[in-house]
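Translate sequence into structure tokens.
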Amino acid sequence: MSDERAASAADDAAGIEAPHDFDFRGLDVPNLVGSAAAAGKAAKQPKPAKPAKTKTAKAKDGKGKASKKGKGGATAAGAGTTFPSGGHGPMLFRPMTLRGLTIRNRIWMPPMDTYSAFAQDGRPTPFHYQHYVSRAMGGFGMIIAEATAVAPEGRISPNDVGLWADWQIDSWRWIVEGIKEAGAVAAIQLNHAGRKGSTGSFAVGHEHETVPGEEGGWQTVAPSAIPFGDYDTPRALSVDEIHGLVGAFAAAAGRAVAAGFQAIEIHAAHGYLISQFLDPLSNEREDEYGNGFEGRIRFLLEVADAIRAVIPEDMPLLVRVSATDWAAGGWDLDQTVALSKILKAHGVDLVDVSTGGIIAGVTVPVKPEYQVPFSAQVRTRASVPVTAVGLITKPKQAEKVLAKGKADAVEIGRAALRDPYWPLRAASKLGVPSDEAPYRPQYVRGAY
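Result follows.
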């Protein structure tokens, strides 16, 4: 069965119909990207960029504030701007290259679910355009779109976005174009929720519990018939179904490429399907997909190989992992390091290091930078580029993480939800002249 026919069959089973005459922009505005480009050209021409100082001198008032240099000369990222590079300027604002892709800085927006595909058809909406493009305009180097389901039953909630069908591609294109036009890299996280699927959200109710079938829920699947907390018990997948899901990840990756995304992230963290296979506390299989470390990582490796085979050679492939499940006898740092070494050999370019979400009822020692030591260990012991995430909220705090070699990039999550322009504020705090900060030309007059 072809990918398109398989997707159609999956849609039928989930009661989802392909849209007809769908206006994927959602707004009656022609050529938004072209209009933005024209506006950029009409803006005042930038002054030549100057290297950022490695240390900001104190102002005459003695308050230590950076002087406001080049305020009228900021330019759009991706339009000829020279950002701090090499050994100059704060680490946060040095470009980073993965395969054939250069990211303008090391401040990234991680995938965060918004549960806002309100038609329950997996298609992003004008909300998603506003959400992601505003952060790109705010200066983030990479925008990683939220967990995107590779199958209807792979959604976390009925209101998750997806790429399980070709007719969903166009609804992503204008968002990707907007992100790239604003100078950021557009990446997407592909996911299957497994036993943590069919759960509630603000949009449908039933928060922190399974959505009933009569209200749009579905039977969940997992490596073993072990529920997560009080959620409904999942059905154990057959080997043939696992093979089919490997194909679903690859097909979704192909659609992401068609939509224009520049990097792919595999979600193997936070207790969703792939991490359920990894963890011995949720995987009790005795076949080739369980029964020891090599069996438990097999599904992830097959997914990584399948995606690597369908995306361009110069496109980065990322994997998000939970470095520990915070439970005795479960997934831990040593296994994460061993896995990261193997992923590197399978064409994975960066490991996005998080923790938890796999086992219910555990105690997590949440505090600022509580996950950074895991990133540092994976980076050092596996010799692979990593990101750090988790209560990194302040510019100087983020800079120290990079300066001390604990990560190659930092992800600003919840702080980005309340401040879409966090990188621009960070540039000012760290003494980056405004003509080297990632300002859009329309916002130069408001530069810090």
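Note: The longest strand covers residues 142-149.
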